[in-house]
Each structure stands twice: as C-alpha cells, then as structure tokens.
C-alpha cells in the first residue's frame, strides 16, 4: 500500500494538494554559510530535493545569510560544491536571503503600521529578564505602547544608523503572557554596524532568524519549509509572521513549517566546536579529514552520493529522535561499490616471494576478470614474474591449525596465476622473515586447475612490474568502548590508532593510472579511493573507505 509507506511529510503534502492549498511543491535547503556541511545536512538536502522531484515541483538553494559574520564567502563555495556533488539540482540560480532585505524591511514597517511591532530601548539583559520563564509570565516593556508614528520614526532612524549596536531593537507585539516563550514579543530586528559579505555597509539593522526565515520562504513561494525538531516551538511564530505580513491568511495555507528529527550517528563527532578542536589540536588534518563525516570528508574518504542517498533512505524521515550506527553507512557504500568497481590486487604489508623454478626476467600477462560478479566489466592483463610480493600474514613458519596459506611444504593458489609450494624462507639478523621461496607448477596456469585441491588462495603483486604506493587505513577517531565524550570533563575520548599510514604497499601497475576519487576493491583488503587532496599525477595515495567484513546486517 503506497499511501501507508509514505512518510509523514509526504502525507502532509498529499493533503495540501488535495485541499488545493498547494499547486506546486516548492522546497528549499537553507544553510547558514558559517561552516561545512555534514552527513546530517545531506539528509536535509536529499529530503528537500527528493520531495520536489517526487511531486514534480521545485527545489531552491538558498543561503540564509541574514547574520553577518566574517568567515562567510569560503563557506558559500564549499556548500555549493557539496550540494552539487550530492546531485541535488536546484532551480535557477543560487538564492541569498540577503537579497530580500528590502522586503523584510517593508514587512517590518507593515507590522509597525498595524500596531504589531514596536521599538524597544530595553537592554538585551533587561529583555531577557522581562521575558519570564516557563512557569512565570513575562512582563511588558515600558516602551511597548509607543505610538505607530513614533515607532515608524525610530525604526527608520535605526536603519539610518542613528543608534549604536544594542541600544534599540524592533519587537513583534504578540503576547507577553503566552505559554510559548517564543511568542513573548520576540525581537525581529537589531542594530548591528557590521559589513555583510554581500550587501556591504548598506544595512546596519539585520532581521532575526525567526522573522527572516518565514519571509524568505514566503517571497520564494516555498510551500513546505522543512526544518529540524528544535524549531517545533517556533512554528506558531512562523505562522504569525507569514500571516501578519500578509503572505497567507491561516496556518493551513502555505508556506508551512514541518519539523523532522535530526540525523545523529552513534560514536561519531559532528559538533562544530569539537571538530574545530580536533583540527586545532592537530588530531585531524582539516574539515575534510577522511575520518570525519563532513560531506567533504565523506567524499575524500570515498563515499559516493548514491551510498549517502541509500543511507538516508534507510534511516527514513520521522519525528522520533534517535541515533544511527556508522556500520549502516558502511553497508551502503559496500552495496553501492560491489558491482561498480574493479577488484584489483594490492599488497599492503609486503614480504617477497621468490619462485625458484620460474625463468628469470620473464613477464607473463595473466588475464584477470575485473569484477567476478559483474562480467560486463571485462578483463585486464596483470604481469606475473619470478619475484612477487605477498601479504606478510599469508606466510607462517609454524602454522596453527586451520591455517591454509603458505608454510613450508604447503601448496596454495596464487590468485589468477599458478599453484606454488613453499620450499624455504630467509630471515634477517633480527629473525624477521624477509623472503619466502617456492616452486610453481606450470600445469596449473590461470588458477582454475582442477587436478588437485588446494585450500588457500592468496593475492600477489609483481615485485618488478608492480608499483609502490602509500595507503591509509582508518578507524573511528572515537574510542568506541568509552563513547564520544568523557563524562567527567567533557573532553573527547580519542582512539590513538585512528589513522595508519602504510608507505611500502605494492600495487598492480594499472593502479598508478588512477586519478582523484577513483574507487577500487583491493581483494581481501576492502574498498579504496584515491585521496583527492594529497595525491599527485602518477602518484596516487589510497584511502581505505571500508573493509570487506561487515558487522551490519539489514
Ligand atoms: P548551525 O546553526 O550551528 O549552523 P545547522 O547546521 O543546523 O547548525 P544550518 O546551516 O541552518 O544550521 O542547517 C541547514 C539545514 O540543515 C537546516 O534546515 C537544518 O535543519 C538542517 N540540518 C542541520 N543539521 C541536521 C541534522 N543533523 N540532520 C538533519 N538535518 C539537519
Ligand atoms: Mg550550519
Ligand atoms: Mg542553524
């Protein structure tokens, strides 16, 4: 039943269409350009974009830049890049709330003329005291009953720069006894002599979020203004502003605010303050460090827009607050890449394997399927030589029970190549194995030989034709046993092993042609992505996105 499987927002939209309140669904993503976007924002972006698409409507990209601060321009660019990368195509040009400052000013004047707004001279501290508490009603300001004429003049003087920051505000005249504190004459304009990144010094009064946001929505014809749960108590004010400024006549009409639960990931740091500290303490290298969950970091790590979309769809849209496990996101990227990427051989912790009876200097090219589960991906040629590298853990001098890989006397399959039997090994003066020796059986070429059975299959890379590269492995930056935050002092519980840099890895030569953000499976080792920051042409660095083993089951 399609109606039942619809989420609560779709059900609201259906009703609005049925009642005739909504002709064309228009949604928006309204970030404040004051930081990088993270996985939670991805949910909001894909939700708003997805609804517009589903209903044949329109999705607006609007910067909510009504609060001027210094660091903004850089964030406008990074946010645009993130939204584009996620594939959320917005309608027309990017929009800026600051373009509506004239409409907002006019709306404020309209409220004053209706006797619904007044200029207040109380200080910020006094306004806070007068506001009251949940159990105590607020107290009216002595300036509350100024005449319309006086208010109009004072507000104009505020705009002209006659007053210093903090000396006067414009407040909506609603109800100081309202049980909802947001309705106790909220401030809607303040004086701030600040330079705005787009409007420069044109304005020295700026609208407050609760006044600006509904007008931005109304000006753009947004029908469904989707935000997170903490704004639920602000909805009566949202409707009040839209109605009193003349954009609608009742709460049932559009635009209307709809709240949903934020996306939280268990044991993952998302707070800006904490990420800033990780950056400042040098624990991570910037906002796009592959261990973080900013959209830029997820992209750099190797997550795809498709995997993120699958993830937010699996999580669903609800009003119930909860926290989702990170392994669910890992599940999604494995699912997405499984049939899409080539399965290559890469040795991360190498030890040399010498085939004593293989001709010196010979290079044989083995025909290898690019993806055994997806024959359409074709085959490639992988060079095979007398000296190879194999994983150090694929050889043991004295194997425990059930160890089927290389040990003296044992025969294994070199994936896609030959069966080899271990004959000997060499150690250095510290007792570390530096070379394993074996002989091969030419009869077994291709690895599909059925004449006898071997239990172990290991991967390899030619020591002379393969290439050396850097590979980075990651774990959670948080110590999962202890949880994100230390309960005593609020500090973070950091996992000291969250990043491992391997500089001596050997890769199939074809991998040297990989470019930024190319993704592969390295057989037995996981999924990997070419780092988009530190790689150089012909010198890719690989990030492990995720291992092959999963703890998550759908
Ligand atoms: P801050 O005010 O600290 O920047 P913010 O990131 O919530 O916090 P916005 O930039 O205004 O602020 O966010 C843009 C949009 O993303 C908003 O509509 C917000 O509701 C949504 N959003 C933010 N965090 C999440 C989250 N964890 N899950 C889902 N949506 C989110
Ligand atoms: Mg933000
Ligand atoms: Mg915000």
Sum up the structure in keywords.
single chain, 554 residues, alpha/beta, Rossmann fold, Glutamyl-tRNA Synthetase, domain 2, Ribosomal Protein L25, Chain P, 3 domains, 7-stranded mixed beta sheet, 13 helices, 25% helix, binds adenosine-5'-triphosphate, binds magnesium ion
Please describe the topology of this protein.
Blueprint: H1 2-5, H2 8-19, E1 26-29, H3 39-54, E2 58-63, H4 72-85, E3 95-96, H5 101-113, E4 117-120, H6 124-130, H7 148-160, E5 169-172, E6 187-191, E7 205-207, H8 209-220, E8 224-228, H9 235-244, E9 256-260, E10 263-265, H10 272-280, H11 295-301, H12 305-315, E11 322-324, H13 326-337, E12 343-344, E13 346-347, E14 350-355, E15 364-369, E16 379-384, E17 387-391, E18 411-414, E19 419-427, E20 433-441, E21 457-458, E22 461-462, E23 467-474, E24 499-507, E25 519-522, E26 526-530, E27 541-546
Parallel strand pairs: 1-2, 2-3, 8-9, 10-11, 12-25, 14-20, 18-21, 23-27
Antiparallel strand pairs: 4-5, 5-6, 6-7, 13-24, 14-17, 15-16, 17-22, 18-19, 19-20, 23-24, 25-26, 26-27
The structure holds adenosine-5'-triphosphate and magnesium ion (2 copies).
One magnesium ion binds at residues 31-32, 34-35.
